[in-house]
Design a protein that fits this description.
With about 525 residues, the chain is of the alpha+beta class. The protein is built from 16 helices and 14 strands. It has 2 domains: about 325 residues, no CATH class; about 200 residues, OB fold (Dihydrolipoamide Acetyltransferase, E2P).
Length: about 525
Amino acid sequence: MKRNLLGISLLTISGLYFLLAAVIILISLVAGINVLYGIIASIIILILQFLISPFITDLTMKWFYKVDFNHEFPDYLKKFIEQICNDNNMKYPRVGFIDDGAPNAFTYGHTKNNARVILTRGIFELLTEEEIKSVVGHELGHATHYDMLFMTVAQLVPLILYGIYEMCTQNKDDDDNNNQAIIGIIAYVLYVISNYIVLYLSRTREYYADSFSVEATKNPNALASALVKIGYGLTTAVTNEKHSTSKTNALGIFDSKTSKSLIVSSYDNGKISKEHIKQAMKWEQWNYWAKLYELNSTHPLISKRLLEISKRSGDFNQEPFITFDLVKEESYMDDFLLELLINFLPLLTFVIGALIVTLLFQNTEKNLVIGYSIVLLLTSIFSYIKFNKVYSKKEFKAANVRDLLGEVKVSHITSIPVTLKGTIIGRGNPGCIFNEDFIIKDNTGIIFLDYNQPMTIINKIFAIFKSKEYFDKEIEVKGWYRRSPVPYVELKSMVIDEKEKKIFTYGLKKACHLIVLIAALVGLFIGLTL
């Protein structure tokens, strides 16, 4: 398995550097520009970043996440880590603990011999011993595969390509400006392509980290169950108190960009309900937004990882953890295409409309005013249609996390107004003192709450000085349920201790739409009276 991973990694990185070499040769032949010094500078910067980033992350973890690297972990976990270290000729990693109820785990460092593994309290409260070992095994898999080093080497290519793009497009006084502009466009296209190749490499290495964990624990179903709890996360309504213990360059159990943690109860009489898991998998398997999100993600979709892990169950005399055998009753393509149209129509209307008006009426002031006003009016109308889709006006009905996860027709465009009751168990970004978001746990599971006031400074002040008052409190929240790709609720209001806390973003956005509409009408009136 390691040999295959090495081959895939070397082939992918070779392809990336072939693209880079082609652009460098093109620049030398067509534009006669020497980019060697810029490339050397980029390499030096990236190497320095790679060398110091773990130490910077250490400080970040201690200051802003309150990580305890001296925490006493359970004996079974220490023995498991020691066994992996002995089997793979690696030093025992530094293991840190974040006192937060939201489940999360990640690793960072240079190589397998100076890796750091960070675990939250939620990992120990929501997972069994075997599941905890499988998660730690996944993180140690990243370290033993030298993922931090390989990804750093791969990320150098898009970094240099973007630098070439900026260099070629900013120099406008050169006689060969047209050639440079063309090369700049080519460099930018290859920059985008190389970024997607790097993401593909990252997703591939996640599968191999899963495989490492399976081999280390000899218990694929434990890893699958842990992914269900953390990634979707399906868990019991009661935490495992007996297991409880009192943006970084990290490789986590799931994508840090989508770390809006999600947990839903899927247990029947103490056992995971496979039907509830299948319901949670439907969105990833059927909704076309999921495929687009995965392309832009460092991690594969949870459902794909579950199915891959389930293929290994037979190797260890286990029944496959999950088989997705639900029948899709409709295509969902029509909903996806409609959402795409609603999402981009305001921007397309404004850009294309403004361009047409400028070209047709550039010499007529009255027609220009009228034309721009009509474009603004149409843009505001289409924007308001999108706004009403994003912030559905339907009734805020009582819901639970489990049932919400089974919804397929939901995205960052299509929302479901909901009311949830539960307990705040931690921050959306576990342990981060600057994070204003929450994780709520109801009697069916937990889900991310997006607390978003109109100004970032207000959010940060709330996070530092007020958010702790909500921890471990019973709360009722009202908001809009979405997926992008993970499930979360954008808050409209929260009620705690019979006091309501309102979020004003929705009202401000609505007011802005009204202002733009009035401005368009006023402009049209002025144009008609000129």
